[in-house]
Amino acid sequence: MSATHLHDSAAAPAGRPNAFMALVRRRPEIITFALLLAICVAVSLINPAFLQPSSLVDIGRASVVMGLFALGVFIILAAGGIDVSFTAIAAFTMYSLTLLVKNHWPDAPIALVLVAAVAGGALLGVVNGLLVHHLKVPSLIVTIGTQYLFRGILLAFIGTVWIMSLPPNMGAFGRLPLVQFDAADGRTITLPFYFLVLPAAALGTWWMLNRTLMGRAIFAVGGNANVAERLGYSLRTIHIFLFAYAGGLAGLAGIIHTCANRQSNPFDLVGSEINVIAAVVLGGARITGGTGSVLGTLLGVLLVVVVNSVLVMVGIPSTWQRVVVGSFILLAAAFFVTAQKKS
Amino acid sequence: MRNTGGQLVLLIVINVAVLGLGAAISGGSFLAPFNLQSMAGQLPEIGFLAIGVMLAMCAGNGGIDLSGIALANLSGVVAAVVAGKFLSSADPSSAYSLAFIIGALLVGLIGGTVNGLLISRLNITPILCTLGTQMLFTGLAVVASDGRAVAVGSPDLLAQIGNGLFLGVPISFLIFIGVAALVAALLKFTPFGLWLMLMGTNPKAATYAGFPRTGVLITTYATSGLLSGLAGIIIAARNVNVKWDYGTSYLLIAILIAVMAGVRPEGGYGRVVCVVLAAIALQLMSSMLNFGGLSNFVRDFAWGALLLTFLAVGRYNVVGFLIPNKSTKLV
Predict the structure, then answer these.
(1) pTM value?
(2) Partner of A276 for a Cys bridge, out of A1, A69, A239, B213, CB 3.0 to 4.6 A?
């Protein structure tokens, strides 16, 4: 998986110190990877329990939902926009779909449920895309509005009661194991089947960004929307596609969240947007658009998930979690800006 | 830029209409002095944050302040923890209150200056910077308070600010109007105001004209931070407790107010008087929904719909269509 840079790939490295900076500028995810590695090494030195399969599987499991969100946020960021409504889309889709399946078709095959989740999320995404395109205001403000709109509709008109018992097929999907083995202390550790959804979605997104015209168009719009329009790209199509794609991923993430937790709570997910955006930015995507890679995004997600789960292991109280992630965002932002300036 | 008188007229019309509608729904009790006082008392905390958002938006180049409510909570929490270390809120003298107020303002000012420095010196995009500081400020508030609510109590001076009346008007509301007037004067009569608006209109031209970009940006975000500190004081004075997760929906509402007030999200234009009127209109609507017996979730839905509606109003120049203006418009 490689980074696609349309406008600064021509930067020629000159001299020894600049060569490293140029490399970082082309592949900012190197820094993310180094940071992730450093944290993992430090944590396993302090607390060897970190390297147990059980905690690694936990990290893998925790990164599925966030990873799906992050892929959606990443392509919108790559096109120079931002989306904060994806958690509301996920909550909306997962709760209404679970309700629908439970009340009307409890035996619906899981494949159909997943497809319906993607379609439902994509539909809400299209609403976002149309609004962003036609209102011509920063997508942050539009999606803050739609976040409240979607969540308001969900909680005011659809329901606020937790669904504690899922339809059988959805529950079974959440429990379906991919790898199962017994740990040293006798507990059974399961890497669930739904974990595969993340690599599949990542591969699909990578293919879309690097092998299709739409991918070209997305980075072109992120680099300079006016120039992209003059080149003949239809901004309307791109905006609708972007937000529909992110919405579809959000719908999928929502339904997986429900299956994995074996319950559907309409109050879940909303509020975690900043963590996801942080992950994407830490993965090297510039918030002004035109840069970033799928691999970097996944590394950023892993970084945030690891930071969130290891603080307690190394004896830092969990109250510090926000301080650490917030500082990481600012440091990463400052670092990438400085790296870009020294060309 | 002259079509903006229309926004003012529109906001006044909305205010009067909502007042009338509220009175009709509630059979007059909506306009009772008690209800008006309670609405005026609820307004300042969100009003301060909205003015902060407006200032950041005016600076242009993607300017926005997402850290407002987080900084307000941090100011309240830190001031309460520090003041509580040395003084007791049960003390009859107003030493505790004064220490709390100074502490909160100081934290707000420092937080805002950090935002300004990061944005102007390090060139971090405002969205990203204030997203990061929002998390940082919230995190620091959690750390300082250990995740619990911190008691402020109701020492005399703070209680006066929170719940006192002067000639029947809540003191917090008077403070809000006073500060808003001060900010309006700052924008209208000082070079800073001119620089801010022109910089928001065309940052490149502003650079070539030799405007002190760094100074203007730092002043903008520091003022926004100071306003957050003020909001933190009012929140503490009205609620007896301060907690890191107070007012999670305020971020949207502050942006909603700014957009309703006709502040241009791309920068260069905004009027404090419109922000004040928009804040009042929103408070009236919120109380009206309460009178109608609707749940908070309906309110969330209504705010989202309202924000998008006002974006459309700004985009398609509905105001100019309804209230035509003789002079030619720039936009």
Answers:
(1) 0.84
(2) A69
